[in-house]
Design a protein that fits this description.
Blueprint (H helix, E strand, L loop, with lengths): L2 H8 L4 H15 L2 H33 L1
Length: 65
């Protein structure tokens, strides 16, 4: 995968897919710019998931108040 292909596909990938690519890149290809970009996207997707999980925990209490 080259840089253009990565950026074209990255926004369509799931958190697990991005993490898989990141893991492969760290072991096999070891391209610094790819690792930085994949990690950036992985962190953004993880933050979205974690925030949704936290808000789901708060939702029942918000309805009680």
């Amino acid at each position: 995968m080259n840089w253009r292909e990565l950026n074209a596909q990255l926004n369509q990938m799931t958190e697990a897919e991005v993490k898989g690519l990141l893991d492969v890149e760290l072991v096999e290809r070891r391209r610094v710019t790819f690792v930085e970009r994949l990690h950036q996207r992985y962190c953004a997707l993880r933050a979205i998931r974690e925030r949704a999980e936290m808000m789901a925990l708060l939702a029942p209490r918000a309805q009680e108040a």
